[in-house]
Amino acid sequence: MKVFQFIVSLLLISNLAIANDLETIDFIEVSSEKEWKKAFEKAKADNKVVFVDVYTDWCGYCHKLDNEVYTNEQVISYFNENFINIKFDAETQWGYQKAQAYAVDGYPTLLFLTTNEDVYEEIGGFVPSPTLLAYAEEVQSSWVKLPILAAQYERGTTSKGETLEYIDALERRDVEKANEVAATYLKGLNDADYLEIETLWLASRFENYLEAETYMYITAHKDLMVETHGQSEYEDYIKAVYNDNLLLAIKYGDETLLNRIVIELIPEFVPETEQAEAAYITKTLYYGQREDFDNYVIESNAYLNNHVLPEDKKNFMFSQAVEILNNYESKRLYEHAVDLLKQCRRMDKDNFEVASLLVYTYALLGDKKQANESLLLAEDLADSDEKSAIVADLKQVVSSI
């Protein structure tokens, strides 16, 4: 038996050696900021995109990449020729900080970075060799074409298609310049240009404020846009306008813009029967993000009283309380959640979920007396082991107040 185990050990060592001897991409293993900067200095000198593999030792798909993808002859040849290739372990002290800087939240994460260390393209998770090559070829093509298109654009010799290609490439490398070129392009549109789907896509990314000529033209010619591009493309454009303008309204506290979004935009892509709900969601999101919690409560109560059917009120109030507890840390909203849950309890006094959520909400408010009263009710309503376990957890929460 000992001889057999020894032979098996030798075989394992031999296989490991063979695996380690496989030809692979020429990666630079980086473990410090100095090594990172050195790699980007080389990238700038060679005018190459940097390919980065962010991995961990325990990640099975990271090893799968190493063994099945990075050993592919086409992958090796293409990446060694066209990129500066680096790897780093996200669980080292330096690697963790670098992974956080790029908002890496899963492994493997593959990044194509510009020479200025900005993300040019990102791949989350394992991809097979053909897919990785397709990503790489698209990145490389765009990177190589960019200076050529830039020179043509400055000479004024780019076609419309080339200008759109230039804008697309700039988005990854120089957003400010992309905005400048896109604005110039959109100012020169004629009626025929709006019949091209690329115009809708471009306008949705670069010029979708409500005073923009493109927005006013597209919405004024809605029937033509729908006939030409289809209802879904038109609605996708309006949704992009909605999202960007809502972000602007939240950022600057612009309630005039908020009201225009509700009055002008929502009817463009939301069915009439759902517009009141869409307006409610839009306004509560705005007030929640602005931390204007008094107006949040006003909108919540107004929608509850004016638009929710009697048979739907309990479910709405419970879901609204859950929404508050999941997304906000506000005494005013916790108090509103209590009001909603108390109304639920009056409608259904034997509801365990309502009683237990009241315990938790009172605990968040630091009201131990009310939390204990609700805890007794929840305990009486716990008719299963699962519910009893929830009560036990709630007791610990209340005891910590």
UniProtKB/TrEMBL annotation:
The keyword Signal appears for this protein: yes
SUPFAM superfamilies assigned to the protein according to its UniProt record, in alphabetical order: Thioredoxin-like (SSF52833)
Keyword Nucleotide-binding set for record: no
Pfam families: Thioredox_DsbH
InterPro entries in the cross-refs: AGR/TXD (IPR051099), Ssp411-like_TRX (IPR004879), Thioredoxin-like_sf (IPR036249), Thioredoxin_CS (IPR017937), Thioredoxin_domain (IPR013766)
Domain Thioredoxin: 11-141
Keyword entries, A-Z: Redox-active center, Signal
Gene3D superfamilies to which the protein is assigned, alphabetical: Glutaredoxin (3.40.30.10)
Signal peptide interval: 1-19
Protein name as it appears in the record: Thioredoxin domain-containing protein
